[in-house]
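## tool: complex_structure
## caller: assistant
## args:
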Amino acid sequence: MNKKIIVAGLGHGGISAAAILAANGYDVTVYEKKKEGTLGYDWTDIFAPRSLEYAGIPMPPEDKYEYKEDMTFFAPTCEKGLRQHVPEDQLEIKMERRDIYEHLINHALGFGVKIEYECEVLGPIMLGNRVAGIRTSKGDVYGDLVIDACGMNSPVRSNLPEFLGIEKGPDRSEKITIYRAFYNKASDEEVDAKFRIMLFGKGIKGISWVASEDEYTDVLIGRFEDVTKEEIDDFLVWLREKNPRLGTEVVRGGQFVEIPVRQPLSVMVADGYAAIGDSAFMTVPLIGSGIANTLKASKMLADTVIADKNGEFTAKTLWRYQTEYYKKIGAGLAPLACGKKLLLTLTPDEIDYCFSSGMITEDDITMGADFGDMGSLLDGDINDMINKIKTVCKDPNLLKKLLPVVGKISKAVATCAMMPKKWNRERVLAWSKVYSYSFR
Ligand SMILES: Cc1cc2nc3c(=O)[nH]c(=O)nc-3n(C[C@H](O)[C@H](O)[C@H](O)COP(=O)(O)OP(=O)(O)OC[C@H]3O[C@@H](n4cnc5c(N)ncnc54)[C@H](O)[C@@H]3O)c2cc1C
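## result:
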């Protein structure tokens, strides 16, 4: 009999893994709380198209995407911009989220994946130590494996029993609140930097962007703490002073959402269970991009499932998925999680100094653009590193903040490298504690 795979939530990684598994003869059903045709948000997303190829998904039709402009990063004073120079073969694409979903869903349906819309997942069903299915608004469903693609606040992950050692959820500092809206164009004034990223704009801890499109201006305001609409409106006034094209009328979006910005989940698997995408915190900790990482993870997960010829789907057989993910992506994200913590301790003046002193360069910003291969961030030119250290040493306060972070980054990298190669419950749980501790 075909093994039955349950995908909880129609996340990007879940539907992509579903496609590969259905193509290989598994009986796969996705349970999604939203209505058919209403998935996603009313705006565009940016991601690396190589991740589609990695997951065996064809490129979307050419009229459905365009290549993203290089971004220009600004320090809090907005005086000095550092522009990316992303090589052509690494350019990311920009696509309407609903079109990405349509593309992934059609691909999966073509292989026989079933989708049950308007079916809310309420939590896991446990049989002994094993996740044996899910509770849903339409009744209980049992299967051989539950793939948890329900996103950051997954009711499956957060209701798993403690003894599995899987973290329940991100705390406040581990998620970013985003306000995103497209505004009308207030003037035809030409802009030299079309896609502007501002760090700690107006001296407030957060990241924002203003992207000047032909017909509208795309605004994103991200904060690492709670933020009200009044505070956003106030910030928009400041943004308009710097970006005269930014109008006052919202033409699309205008919502608040949250994205995880932390290290990946320390234990992603259990007997009968595997988490993917935001449910496993696979986003890039500094900026919250997660589509490329989750698409790549879908291939790693599906390959692991297929390799389990006896269809046991235990933590032991699924562990290969976690080790692969960390080797190829997660180990590169862990230092960035430390970097995000450092960022939150810096003052606007210190960020200005990092930009104006040449400590952060256009090459650094460009390297950060290829989120598909975060491991490359760790390979730096040694002379460049020494120059950076010399620059930091000139500012004692900055040095004081940076030194412990360098220690934490080294610890995070070393801990990732020490992840048990094979599943052993005691060893994995002990490792998970050390790993989580290195981010405190
Ligand atoms: C506003 C915003 C902008 C972003 N922009 C980018 C970007 O430009 N580039 C990029 O790479 N990444 C971006 N991300 C991150 C990216 O969307 C995610 O990292 C990526 O989609 C992986 O998340 P996911 O698919 O696992 O989860 P989600 O996108 O959260 O999807 C989870 C799915 O599960 C469903 N679901 C949730 N709970 C239940 C339930 N109880 N029962 C049934 N179904 C449920 C949801 O309806 C949804 O369909 C953005 C995220 C947000 C929120």
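## assistant note: The chain has three domains: 4-67+96-170+265-331, 173-260, 337-416. DSSP finds eleven helices and 19 strands in the chain. Handing back to user.
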